[in-house]
Amino acid sequence: MCPYRSIPPNIGQALDSESGYIFVVSGKPGTGKSLFVQEIFRNVQDAFMVLTNTETPVTFNDEFETTDHWKNRHTYANFWRNVFDEFDYDVPLIEQLEKLVGHESTNLGSQHIIIDSWSDFLEPFPDQKRKKIEQSLIYAAR
User: Fold this and answer.
1) 85 burial type by CB count under 10 A (0-12 exposed, 13-18 middle, 19+ buried)
2) Which structural domain, as residue segments, surrounds residue 59?
3) At 107, phi and psi to the nearest 5?
4) What is the pTM of this model?
5) Which pLDDT score, from 0 to 100, does residue 2 have?
6) Across the strands, what pairs with 48?
7) Total domains in the fold of the chain
8) Within its chain, how far is the Cα of 56 from the centroid?
9) Is 39 inside a domain boundary?
């Protein structure tokens, strides 16, 4: 029996696994992607969320905003953050994420990091750089 309320059992097993997984939740607008990752966030106590401007105002309600638990488990990646010329691809995941978010966040070293929305997170970067950054993050996460 999966200990998670509304997460499919195979996803719950992957979340509990020692192996580590990278999930990409994709779909058309309005299909429930953000709602699904919110459920993961609610059910996984050490999950940390990086929100982009497009997801921030609409997807989270007062249930999250008023709890200290929420305040210590999320950060925002502003679309208008500094886009840097150089990116070190051979550093640990937490250092890459801090540079991409644009500021240090003590909980980016969490076991489960949720980025909502991935495409908006990498949107400020040119296509060629975006692909390299994406590959670097995936490699570092493994």
Assistant:
1) exposed
2) 45-141
3) -100, 10
4) 0.73
5) 55
6) 113
7) 1
8) 13
9) no
**Within 13 Å, how many C-alpha atoms sit on residue 9's CB side?**
2
**Surface-to-core class of residue 30, CB atoms within 10 Å of its CB (0-12 exposed, 13-18 middle, 19+ buried):** exposed
More confident residue, 82 or 26: 26
Whether pLDDT at 28 is above 60: yes
Determine, yes or no, domain membership for 2: no
Give the long-range contacts of residues 21-27, CB within 8 A, separation 24 or more.
22/138, 22/141, 22/142, 24/118
Helix (H) or strand (E) holding 75: strand 74-77
SS3 (DSSP) at 51: strand
- Report yes or no on 116 lying in a domain: yes
Residue 60 confidence (pLDDT) above 60:
no
The answer to whether residues 108 and 101 touch, using CB atoms and an 8 Å cutoff, is yes
